[in-house]
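Journal club prep — side note

Before the paper discussion, L.F. wants everyone to see what a predicted structure for a comparable chain looks like in token form. Sequence:
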Amino acid sequence: MIGLVLCGAPVVYSTVRGLLRGKFAADVIASMTVVTALVLGHPVVGLVIVVMQTGGEALERMAGARATNALRALQESAPTKAHQITGDTVEDVPVAKMKTGDLILVRPGEIVPCDGEVVAGTSHLDTATLTGEPIPRKVTPGSAVMSGSINQESPLQVRTTAVAEESQFAKIVALVREAQSSKAPLQRIADRFAIWFTPATVVVCTIAYLVSGEWERVLAVLAIATPCPLILATPVAILGGMNTSARRQILVRNGGALEALARTTAVVFDKTGTITIGQPKVSRVVAVDSIPESEVLRLASSVEQGSGHLLARTLVTEARERGVLAEAATSVVEAPGRGVEGEIHGYRVAVGARSFIGERYPGTRELMSDLDTRHDPSSLRAYVAVDGELAGLVEYGDMMREGIADLVTSLRSSGIKHVVLLSGDRAETVREIARQAGIDDARGDMLPEDKVEVVRRLVHNGESVIMMGDGTNDAPALGTATVGVALASHGRGIATEAADIIFLADDPSRLLDAIRISRRTMRVARQSIWFGLGVSVIGMLFAASGAIVPLAGAAIQEVVDLGVILNALRASRSPMYGKR
């Protein structure tokens, strides 16, 4: 009896505490059985139930464990100091002490500590962590800059327009914190069954006592009705589903996410780095007159080998892949953030922005204007001039991954009602990518808080929402969605910390595998539950009639448990989808 008191007390305490908090869970009958066994002097019956209950809880902890450090990771990545300019001196001061209107210096490679406006300097900023846009944004005096952007090339003097606590980076931290605190806990499938099974059990117990007047029958009914199938079937199946997912390089961080994934009705994709490759690529080379495109690319890449700019590296890679990369140019002169010029085989070659080429060779301006009228002027491009004459241009873009259109089609065929594309990129670019992918609902120019609002509205409308992203700017929306999915191999660490499911392979199409595995897992769990509950209901009727004594009822329930576990283990042998 002492053993039952010591072992059973935590079980009963946990149940009572849950009831006081309004949580009606599957362990109510188990606690009733333990208390009744203690009162009637049947310690063995009570201990059998305690072993079952604590074992099931241990399995659930294994399936439901999640330790996220998203907020801590965000806060640790934020800059702590700023280079404040006062007169002719530059002094390092804590970011927390910065005031609106202060002048700061942002050196190459540093993170902009506060929102502000560029006062002096020209450079390119990597804003991917904030907007998802993979192509660096050029800033000049008068340009607005956001905290969290990374200065790539030249020093900038920035006049702060917001203190650190009110800057864009701080807003992302606040959004992640809000998403984590406000996200409603998922109701376990076992608890949904318990809502009707527990009252039914109490009714049978009441009838058994009123008819016989024997508390032994009540205990027998409780022992055989203790919802072991509810407590064991789901965690065993979910652990199997998580193992199957892991073999597909899909890391499921908590069992609740796998349950929710099976009920998905809407999928929200981030664009950059998720359905696109997330890096600028050469989308087109345009040659002037009879100059071959390959020659334009060869000469431009020869000069660009002397530059460290992201687009220069992209151009060199494209030339190498096409087999036209020549030796590096000589006498290279670079105007940071604007263009580069050098000599190769006696030719003077310049590559850069329209303003850069136009200043050096004014005669090219009219032809550049003509090219702009015949090609999309809003695309990111570099012009190429050879010996003072315009030779062509190179356009850059973020290319869509292969197979995305097939993924969207398959998602719709599997019952997904809504597919949405969100991005901080230009709305025109987002709509074009969405058209290629077969997505009807596409929205661009979105900040992290805008993405959160879209996801929140879908959840509020009753949708079970998957949000898939890869960057810091996606972290708040990942935390807000029913299930957040992050691409780990391509994305930022903060996104993976905020997500419920992580794709270790850089392959968004595995989302379809994850959904299929989750649905089969939950189908197996429900089969186990219905089998176990069916046997329990039959056993309850025999126990109520006096045909089964309490100890026999507990033993029968353990046999049922074994059958439930063996069936639930089928989830670990889920068929594999696609290629490994």
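L.F.'s comment for the group: Residues 58 and 430 are 46 Å apart (CA to CA). Keep this in mind when we get to the figures.
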